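re: ur question from earlier - yeah i can do the single chain one, its not a big deal. heres the input i used so u can compare w yours
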Amino acid sequence: MKKKQWQNWGPGEQAQQHYLVEPRHLAGSGDLRHITEFLRASGWKDKSKSGGPTVFDSPDKSVRIGYDPFTQPGGWTISGKRTAAQVAWHATFSRQVPVEIVAGVTDALTQPRSAHAPNVWEPLAAHRWETEQGRHVTARSPDGTAFVRFHQNGPGQAHWWAGARNEHGRVWQAVFTPTTPMHLVQAFSTALSDPQPVMRQLGHVPPSQQIRTTSVSVLPSQLSAWQQARITAARAATWARNTARSPRPRTAAHPHAHAGAPRARR
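and the output i got, formated as tokens:
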């Protein structure tokens, strides 16, 4: 385990112990606010009830994101309603899917869809995931602890399935119906294969010999600044989209003198 100390500490602040964990898919669930505060800043409506599951609805009410820690197996559920341009779809993520990976999908839901054709396998191949062709198409992480699979049981019975394992067994899984918009599945594979480590608090690092950790001392003000930067970016993007959609106010036409109107004498 490596150790690192951040510079520019402010006066009177007590540093807290955190860890940078890699690979990120084995880092544990993380802080839910990484997702929920971004959704709130992006204009999504918090429909959660006190003591109940976390629920957010998109501004147009076509997508609902929920997190339920009270039922088994629990975890994240994302459901898209049928619209004129999209059939209904559904995605689930078990509790231990890192929030940074789930956020790949939830962040993408707050943003305009790219004009480029999505490719789920491209980000995986870019980070040296190996693809196996067979009855199912499967990509595996370089260390063999995570996979993404297009699972085909028969005609019309396909779905996307991903998961991670460590020496103790299965850690988590994620499932997407075949009707899930492909750019969202690509957003998931992009976040999953990102080689950057994620940060976890002391006491929140999973007990596994298959992760690598770097110990870091972080000030509360630094954590707050990093979190606020993400929220500020979401608010700015939302403001820009809303401004672009709003009709521009018409300027009043200036009255012109009629061609035949008599001019005032001097």
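The CA atoms of residues 66 and 255 lie 56 Å apart. not sure if urs matches, ping me
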